[in-house]
Amino acid sequence: MIFHVNHKTYEVDLVGHETLLEVLRDKLGLTGTKTSCMESECGACTVMIGGKGILSCITLAANVAGEPITTIEGLADGENLHPVQQAFLDYGAAQCGFCIPGMIMASTALLTQNPHPTREEMEYALDGNICRCTGYLKIFEALREAGDKMSQLKAPRESALYQYIPAVSSTP
Amino acid sequence: MVQTINKDLVNPVGKSVPKIDGKGIVTGQIKYVFDVSLPNMLVGKMLRSPHAHARILSIDTSKAEKLSGVKAIVTAKDTHLIKFGSNEYFFPHTVDQLPLEDEKVRYIGDEIGAVAAVDEETAEEALKLIDIKYEVLPAVFDMEEAMKPGAPAIHEAMNNIAVILPVNFGNVDRAFKESDYIREDIFRTQPAAHCSMEPHVCVGQWETFSNKVTLWSSSQAPFKCREALAKCLKMDLNDVRVIKLAVGGGFGSKLEMMPMDFAACVLSHKSGGLPVKITYTREEEFSFSRRKHPMIYKIKSGIKKDGTIMAITGEVIADGGAYCSYGPTVIAAAIMRIFMVYKIKNFRISGYRVYTNNPISGAIRGFGGVQSGFAIESHIDMLAKGIGMDPMEFRLRNATDPNMVTINKMYLTSNGLKECITKAAAAADWKNKYSKMRNQCRGIGIAVAADVMGSKMYKSHESAGSIVKVEEDGSVYLFTGAADTGQGANTALSQIAAQELGVSYSRIRCKSGDTEITPFDTGSFASRVTFISGNATKRAATDAKKQILNVVAEEYKLNPEDLDIIAERVIHKKDSSVLLNFDKALDLCYSFNYGRQIIGRGSYNPKTTPVDFRTAEGNVSGSYGFEAQIAEVEVDKETGHVRIIKMWDAHDIGKAINPQGVIGQIEGSIAMGIGYSLYEDLKFKNGRVVNANFANYRLPKAIGMPEIETILIETIDPEGPFGAKGMGEASLLPTSAAIANAIEDAVGIRVKELPMTPDKILKALKEKEQTTPQTATESQQ
Amino acid sequence: MLLNPLTFHAPKTVEEAIELYSTLGEVRLLAGGTFLLNSLKLLKKRGIKTPQHVISLRKISVLQGVKVTGDTLTIGAMTVINDLFSSPHLTDNFAILRTVCRNISTNPIRNMATVGGNLTSRYTWTEMGAPLIALEAVMHFCGTNHTTESITVEDFFKNFAKTEKILTHITIRRDPAAALAYQRVKKLSDVDVPLLAVCIRTHFNDGCFTRTRASINCTTSFAKRDLVLEEFLNGKKTANGIAQEALAHLDTSIYDTRSDDYKKSMFRISIKKAIEDLTRRGQT
């Protein structure tokens, strides 16, 4: 089966019951994506599919074959860190770092849609990512900074959260 | 508090430089043991007891051995039957755990053996095929029941009391007679979990012919792990290599060698030297790693009308679970911390650390201080209320001073406790808020705490070692035995090395926690690293600098004593004139004529006195850190939900080596403290954890995190590196009491049992309504 | 491996899916996967046999999206919670769904979990049941040989959420005159575990409650209506104090079964708050 991860195409011999988490870590060697619970409670396995943060531990790999998948390894542009990565570094938003790949993916998904989230919007966007070290406050600070950077990089969208309409809107 | 990083990396001490391993973290490139995969690596699984208390009659592994894919099975008969423990030096009788038990199991999950197989499925299948015959013994799960005569004997200890710690000073009976107000309270705290995001994980490899063991372990104390491993394997220290990579959090849970560490090595040996990886699942992490000691804290105090504390007595019982682990230190710390905080002359509290058939209680951030902090600081508030005194003023009146000796002979040198209290109170607008917001169901509460930086309770010494090696191109290696577990030790130590050596932080690369390469260090616990490993690192950098300056002095025919390196330049001390820059100085060191390698070494063992555990006298730490914390809360009287509006934390950290890192530690501690205060609760039924997952054991999440205002008090400690003290645990100690006190201020109820869940709050509110007429509560303010 | 071996199917049409669903034995439908994957892992861990086939509905585009035609809101069964939340169509009586969506689990789950999965997972505590009963929503299923079936959400849960067909979409009639109140209590502050939910829909006629639907999820059994409460409210003036009075007219079998004191208190507070909320609106 074909997987598109971080703009690279991988052909993976799939037995059918691997989760995306297992394919990324064990078959593609992309160990940046972590897991702390393997049961969708911690958010450490968050990756982006179609601009949304999803949990790779409860995603059947076969189900997302062919879809564009972004992991923590795919965020930086060559040597340059993604604004979210840079802000996490600058604002001391990472301590042990084990939750950070998932946290950064969830943050990037939020800021791509809504570069200027309110504190409440940040809390709701990150409520599925557990961090035991930081108490989240420095993560919020990093998001503020990263959002500013990201909106400078491209024209800001007005209230993007509410503008977002599902790609397929036909109904039965 | 927003603290962005500083881009100027010269003279880095006191600056928020970026985390030294930060880029690896934010890109996912940094490697944890969780990520380690070696060729032909086997999967190991632990064989655990299903019974809380049973005698092992027989173990038959023959069926499992025949299963295809199984490479090794080990049980106690493959071991030397040598016990390990955490407080061997002071409490030899608490060395009570075998890496793999042979005769008896004492809790559900007790390790009996382990299996290595080609994959997880096979390993698990093999576990099921191992036939063990048990004689099930009566078990005891309640700590008070366990102490009663006739309770099942879990070890040899009389009445299951593993450690008795009587602490007795002055004359409490006389002091009570002289008191104007006396009250007695009982507090209870819950078992709780560390929940480091990276579970316990290790890879063991035993090179069978060279007889050399390598263990990659997610550890806070690789040298302590090595010590236990070498002891149990009957090997020399230099034949056992423990390597720590990036560690995904520990919070005390990764301070010991675990049976899995031992098992991975022995399995590797038995499978002919193949590497064996054992990874805890989250369920195992919750059920079979370590947990916080639940405690019953009985405390009775007498005070004068003017607020002077006259006497404190009490009793502390801690449910230690099946083995001792760090229990002795936990019970000692739960009793003795109070001497750092308050001037106390008459004191009598006895501590009992009790065996039960519950999982093992051990070290956890705060070392007993979270439990005692809740009890004592809640009790102190009630004492103040009893004489109608402002609890903030009450604390100021009794707080310890700088340069004093406590009744148990602790030497408090730098001490910013009073400044912490006044600054926190000022920042929180205490005077205008305390007892004045009840009509909005809002309240404000204060609690104070102090902490050691290191604790000479585990070994005869508590030294740390560092090596600063300067390469030909002027780049610098720092080798330290200290274990960065995410708190930023590598960063802070690199800052110290750079500052002392006189170079930019950007020159430093840090290698930590590899017992074969780095010098010895007892590990990351007791907030000791900045203070102890920091001093060792500073000494190593001083040594390296001296070596460089000797070469320069020789070349320029000057006295090396007159030279220094500051901000990348070698200067004359007299007039600060620049002689040459650092790179040129290094060129000289490695030049044709000199060829001198610059290898600075430093070792530091804090000036302490041993604690005599019969009297509790002794100066356990080289310095002490202090803090005051204030919580403002709002209680929903209908639902019992507590909303924390804001927290203030004033912390005497001596000197902030990295302010951003310090604030990060404080914020993280408070978040953890909020969890322990309001909802975290590891629940048991007959010795089995019933909420062993994040769905049912809830951790603080992004939603509802309050604003935290941090005030750093820099008292510049005379002994600390650049005046710094250790920190990282103290901020967790007062949180529960600050919140409990704020709840009391808001709605007039006192919760004495953690966690303070909505149902308990609602129940207390109902009880209060029934006992006091409505008008009385409404008449406030 | 986290899962036992299984054969994965990804049909592109509902018909294909039905065909597979009815012919393969030991089969489970995969919507968002937030329930299914965890339950498959758990079964494996406990050594219990897991289904041989999994049919993913992800590639059936017709099952996705939210739209309005005339007076009817149609929610495709595979619409994920966050997409429903951000749909511009949630106006009038549909707007309550935004509050419901926002309170579901965590963000990554809201990105994955589907409305259909929430309704058909057969977990008693799921969030969509109570509000959709109050909204008189209808579930539409597709069976073999192109048969379709429509059933109200209320009846669906009365039948313990059992079905052997594939849920295709949910419809709700627009009702600009309806007033809705939704109360949800979490087990603890700051965390998301649901304890109970109350959703009351009513209309006001001459300052009186009329056509009231009170739907309750006690989380230990499926969401259902409190007919005693409805009967009490209908015809009553939207006067202050009615909320307190209503607490004496509840179907206690819903609230008291497997509830501790705290939960019982929370039920009363939630119902009171919901009625007070409606009373305020009825009075203006």
Descriptive terms for the model:
heterotrimer; A: 172 residues; alpha+beta; Ubiquitin-like (UB roll); DNA polymerase, domain 1; five-stranded mixed beta sheet; 6 helices; 5 strands; globular; disordered C terminus; B: 781 residues; Aldehyde Oxidoreductase, domain 3; Aldehyde Oxidoreductase, domain 4; seven-stranded mixed beta sheet; 30 strands
Care to describe what's here?
The complex is a heterotrimer of chains A (172), B (781) and C (284). Chain A has 6 helices and 5 strands. Chain A has 172 residues and is an alpha+beta fold. Chain A has a 5-stranded mixed sheet, covered by helices on one side. Chain A starts with a strand and ends in a 9-residue tail after the last helix. By secondary structure, chain B is α+β, with helices and mostly antiparallel strands. In chain B, the strands form 8 sheets. Chain B has a 7-stranded mixed sheet, sandwiched between helices. Chain B has 3 domains: 34-137 and 195-288, Aldehyde oxidase/xanthine dehydrogenase, a/b hammerhead (Aldehyde Oxidoreductase, domain 3, Alpha-Beta Complex), CATH 3.90.1170; 295-456 and 611-778, Aldehyde Oxidoreductase, domain 4 (2-Layer Sandwich), CATH 3.30.365; 464-604, 2-Layer Sandwich (Aldehyde Oxidoreductase, domain 4). By secondary structure, chain C is an alpha+beta fold. Chain C has a 5-stranded antiparallel sheet with strand order 4-5-8-6-7. The longest helix of chain C has 23 residues, at 261-283. The radius of gyration of chain C is 20 Å and the shape is globular. The termini of chain C are far apart. Chain A binds chain C through residues 15-19, 21-22, 38-40, 43, 46, 52-55, 57-60, 62-63, 106, 109, 124-129, 161-162, 164-166, 168-172, and chain C through 1-8, 10, 14, 30, 33-34, 37-38, 41-42, 54, 56, 58, 61-67, 74-76, 79, 82-83, 86-88, 102, 105-109, 111-112, 140, 168-169, 192.
